[in-house]
Amino acid sequence: MTKFDEATQAIRVEEGCYDVCLDPGYAIGGPLNGGYLLAVILRAAVDASPFEHPVSTAAQFLKAPVPGPAQVRVEPIKSGRTAAFARATLVQDGVAQIESLITTATLNEAEPVYTAEPAYGMPDIEDCVKLPDPKPESNMTLNAQMELLFDPPTIGWLKGEPSRRPESRAYFRMAEPQDPDPYVLALAVDALPPVVFSAGMRGWAPTVELTWHLRALPAPGRLTLLGSGRLVSDGWFDEDVEVRDSAGRLVAQSRQLARVGRG
């Protein structure tokens, strides 16, 4: 079991109820990363399902959970021959923190009938760069859990030279050797800095709603994350992320609605 597996494990205590312990190692200056939290919820939802994989997740972030004990409560809605539907709620101190609707199914290794080309072309990995290590007092512990190598123009904001387009692109892998799986993909779809940073805005950008789809089981190796936005307006922005595996296949896609960074 890897550190990530331990940090996301859900222990069944009774029908539809799972104990979890939210790990402080996945914080972004205080709040826990949304993709990490979804991975925790999905562990419970898949355990409660007759199917193996979380193919669609739609989550509303009602509050910002803090590290420590919590529960995931899973309520089955419907189960058929090829898919099952459930509602899963992350609860902490008796208060709902995240509400989600999850569809599970069992994917196989079938070749796609059609697949679109990547939204962007990435430079060679040797031409990509890391972000500077955060200062310990920043409480940006998430950075230590993964390795991101960025397409340089998308982190121009570090030097005060944002591209003025909402975008973020990087190669991704876990810091501890681990082949990507659906739970790693849940983290990956929310691993990039908010795309509004490249549009010239900074600060914590809380996610309000995030929907992501598991499209295929990923091959071993690095993932490629391609993030973009379409509209930044009235204090809100959207973020789309396309995830490709080491074989170039589309394995996950997401869209989230978030508040423009503040503070």
From TrEMBL:
Residues 126-260 form the Acyl-CoA thioesterase-like C-terminal domain. Residues 25-106 form the Acyl-CoA thioesterase-like N-terminal HotDog domain. It holds the Pfam family 4HBT_3C. This is Acyl-CoA thioesterase. InterPro entries: ACOT8-like_C, Acyl-CoA_hotdog, HotDog_dom_sf, Sec_Metab_Biosynth-Assoc, TesB_ACOT8-like_N.
